[in-house]
Write a structure and sequence with these properties.
Layout (H helix, E strand, L loop, with lengths): L5 E4 L3 H12 L4 E4 L6 H5 L2 H17 L17 H15 L1
Parallel strand pairs: 1-2
């Protein structure tokens, strides 16, 4: 059986910081995660929702282009598949 000085449970943002800090301080460190690295914030909370909202805000603001002196006349339809693909790509690049 392996022995460690510190065992961090959960590879969310706090767990990653705790494990990295312990390791940098010289402790033999174990990091345990049952799902995916990054925790809820990265995988299903903060990051995905804010990325999705950014796309929604861009779409909403594009409807006001004429009021701001920008060319209009093009009908813009959101592509939910591409938006969600962008969200997944961001999550994967950060993980």
């Amino acid at each position: 059986m392996k022995e460690y000085d510190v065992c961090v449970i959960g590879a969310g943002s706090a767990g990653l910081v705790a494990a990295t800090t312990a390791n940098r301080l010289g402790a033999k460190t174990s990091l345990v995660e049952s799902k995916t690295i990054g925790g809820e914030c990265l995988n299903s909370g903060c990051i995905p929702s804010k990325t999705f909202l950014y796309s929604a805000n861009l779409f909403h603001n594009s409807k006001k282009a004429g009021e701001l002196g920008l060319p209009t006349g093009v009908i813009i339809k959101p592509d939910l598949g591409k938006i969600m693909g962008h969200v997944r790509n961001l999550i994967n690049s950060m993980a």
